[in-house]
What does this fold into?
Amino acid sequence: MRRTTAAALALAATTALGLTLTGCDAAQEKAGDVFSSATAAVASAAEEKMNEVRDGVNAGGDVEAGPTSTDGDRTVAEITATNPKDTAADYTIMVNFRDAEGKFLDSVVLNIGGVEPGASKSGTARSNRTLTGATTAEISQALRH
It folds into this structure.
């Protein structure tokens, strides 16, 4: 009787452990899906902001992203716009943050206004949420207007 009870307990424990691990995997998968959806929504919102700019011209060559660092719980990067034109200009810049493997993490839109002709001006791109691990900032799109 003891062997049967011990075997039944062992089987029950193994089954419970299997269900717990399966539940954990399902929870991780669901969390990953939610994270992916939220990340896609942030990217979409950034693209919408860029689409609101009227009379903007592609200015990717005018803008550079510096290295990332942390400011409190957010990742930041200094973005510099250099105006090659002969009149003052405003810049609207979409900055993507990526992890060490190049995976998209976040996207923000930064405005740098009143950049004088032949001059440079900087602004800080600040992530929408806490990013972990090594990150880089890249200019996804830049418009001069």
